[in-house]
Backbone:
């Protein structure tokens, strides 16, 4: 199951006010984020595009993918992007007890040097959060791109995202095979359009 909301619902924001859902609304800046990589099918393409467009982003990496593709991870860092921890095995919070979950985050931290964490599926138990909050800042999102959805066209994906973007938005895309078609189309158009509108692009912090 994946969250299908384009914007994280208000109730989650009220339950977890310490999470970062959006940055400064007074600045015309957005924050691109890419979850689940690095993978060879997607990350090199993403990095090429970002380089071409002179845009920085944040990659929430799965530790086991960093272990498998260390050179891709190095490219992310060398290109000046930020990275975050997305657990070692993309764990579902509600299927794992707190020690197991935390251990998996620690395992990923051996590959990913970052104080940023994003829980897979955007959900985390309060007991798990309690253990992680001293060491990590939890970064959620403001605009879920829906790039992984097979039931929408790339054009629809792009339009849905553009409708939701606002100053300070954190945009969630994926470096995942399922997301390729929609992500490539949407990202390419979106960067140009947002630049045209006067936005610049920041990294999560
Ligand atoms: Zn994920």
Residues:
């Amino acid at each position: 199951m994946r969250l299908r909301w384009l914007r994280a619902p208000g109730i989650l924001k009220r339950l977890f006010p310490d999470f970062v859902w959006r940055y400064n609304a007074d600045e015309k800046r957005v924050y691109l984020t890419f979850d689940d990589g690095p993978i060879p099918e997607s990350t090199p393409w993403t990095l090429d595009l970002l380089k071409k467009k002179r845009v920085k982003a944040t990659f929430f990496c799965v530790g086991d993918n960093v272990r498998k593709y260390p050179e891709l991870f190095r490219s992310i860092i060398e290109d000046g992007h930020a990275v975050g921890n997305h657990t070692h095995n993309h764990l579902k919070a509600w299927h794992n007890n707190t020690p197991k979950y935390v251990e998996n985050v620690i395992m990923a931290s051996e590959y990913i040097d970052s104080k940023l964490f994003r829980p897979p599926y955007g959900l985390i138990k309060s007991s798990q959060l309690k253990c992680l909050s001293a060491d990590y800042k939890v970064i959620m999102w403001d605009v879920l791109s829906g790039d992984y959805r097979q039931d929408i066209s790339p054009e629809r994906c792009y339009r849905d995202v553009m409708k939701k973007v606002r100053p300070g938005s954190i945009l969630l895309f994926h470096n995942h095979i399922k997301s390729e078609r929609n992500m490539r189309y949407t990202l390419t158009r979106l960067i140009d359009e947002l630049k045209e509108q006067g936005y610049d692009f920041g990294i999560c912090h």
